[in-house]
Amino acid sequence: MDSRPGVPQDRCHCFGQGRVSPPGAATYFHTEIQDTGAPGWLRLLELIEEAVADGREEFRPLPELSPEERRQIVTLPASIGRLTAVRTLVLYGSNLVRIPPEIGDMTNLEEFSPYTSRRLHWFPYEITRCGRLVDSTVSTRSIYGNYKYRPPFPRLLPPGDTASDLAGPAPARWDTTAARTCSVCTGPISATGPHQAWLSRVVATDVLPLLVNACSQVCLDALPPGAKGYIPAPHRGGAIEQPPPR
From which domain of life does this come (predicted)? Predict the structure, then answer.
């Protein structure tokens, strides 16, 4: 494990896998911000442009990067939304801590595999817009609220009283670096920040914890119920009681 400043780590200690989370335990968002000048990031942008140009149906970018470059990638560019021909997205063993909402624009996506991306604990609600997505391979023990250990969800805060810098908000508060449109209706997000909620839903072959960034409480109220055996309604995380682990 590389401990040099500025080099992301391959593992985290957000919650201990292999045991039931104790009552009162708390989890927090990853605070890493993507270095958009890093060689790995710049190469990833090039790979996306190449995939858009040739219309490929499988996008597997990480083998095209060196180990050091892979470690520099903590999110994906918004330009992944242009990969509308891609049917298979493979992010095996990534160092990702978040995925942007633009994944919902990958309208032909059928297979999604971020397996062994152990720092990736949640997914954007916009992934539910991938109407053809039928197969997924996710390290479910690493995600919030998973059925086996029920690690707690980070506590979400209500919108602020003052304008926030939504072009680049602090991940420690929102765990997003761009919150401009509503996850539900695609309308604009207020300058005071999104109305956030967690919702566990079936996505392809897994139940995933989804982060909703809504423009209003009305949109939150329009969300469907949670998956069977999980918290049944949208919630703000924190000390909320979850069904017992299985």
Answer: Bacteria
- How much is the pTM? 0.89
Residue 212: its H or E element: strand 206-214
Sheet holding 206-214, edge to edge: 123-124, 206-214, 195-203
Closest CA to 124 of 54, 58, 174, 160: 174
Does 113 fall in a domain? yes
Please report whether residue 5 resides in a domain: no
Is the separation of the CB atoms in 144 and 209 below 8 Å?
yes
Domain residues for the domain of 207 are 39-221
- Helices and strands counted in the chain (H then E): 4, 7
Q: pLDDT tens across 128-154, in order? A: 999 999 999 999 999 999 999 999 999
Q: How many domains are there within the chain?
A: 1
